[in-house]
Give the backbone structure.
Amino acid sequence: MLDRHYLKIDNLLIGKLVKMENLIMKSKAIATMTKMMETLPETMQNQVVEHLRDYIADFLDELQWDALFQKTQKKLIAAAKRAREEITKGHSKPMDYNRL
């Protein structure tokens, strides 16, 4: 019983250390970016910020799309399997493009 308690504590500590390490990495990346930006004139800094905003917005859109796709991927696979089964059993008809 005591061993399980210590194991839980160890796992919690490891999890917290990993989170702290990730924060430190992010901080280093931000610090590097800040140093790079400080070397530029203010007008160029503003342009870089605008580009970063656009880039981050696109990146977030991609992440959202990937998450949505992951949620529906199993359903898409199941639908494709059903379609193949229907074709194999002869229950399908050629698509009539005039009805679309």
